[in-house]
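Researcher: Here's the sequence for the chain we discussed earlier.
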Amino acid sequence: MNYSSDSGPLRIGIAGLGTVGRGVVKVLQRNSALVAARSGREIVITGISARSRGVDRGVDMDGYRWYDNPLAMAEADDIDVIVELIGGSDGVAKALAEAALRNGKSLVTANHHGATLAALAEEKGLAIRLDAAVAGGIPIIKAISDGLAANRAESVFGILNGTCNYILTEMERTGRSFADVLDDAQRLGYAE
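Model: Thanks. This is the structure I predict for it:
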């Protein structure tokens, strides 16, 4: 991806406006100047999509084009990068990730089909980032793959997902069942 400031703003479409998607919108709204300074390019949200349009998400979404069908964002001429935060690894999430790459759009995804998507991105000469839901958004995959490329890591242990961390910690701390703690996590917005 070209991040130089003379190439105009990087235009993104966000599919999935749950906890992570709302967080991305809030960060880009609140810190747009800082993000542009650090990346060398303004990043603007051009389109958004979620299951339901009428949900109060606690963030102003009025300035963005709404897509009832997230797959339409993959064909939009005014979107450079798709940020897929729908959840799940198949269905519309996988279809959107594949459509974005096939249509020449770079991709940020939390999807579990990383190897397949990475191969498609490489074939098309596009950027792909798979860090979206790993370690609470910490760019750990890139750090490991790029920063530790000369090392021989044989294994990594830990809970690298905030939802799992919350659920497992609560189960251990309280002795409650998975289903019970999952209900709490969904109510609190940690799980979709």
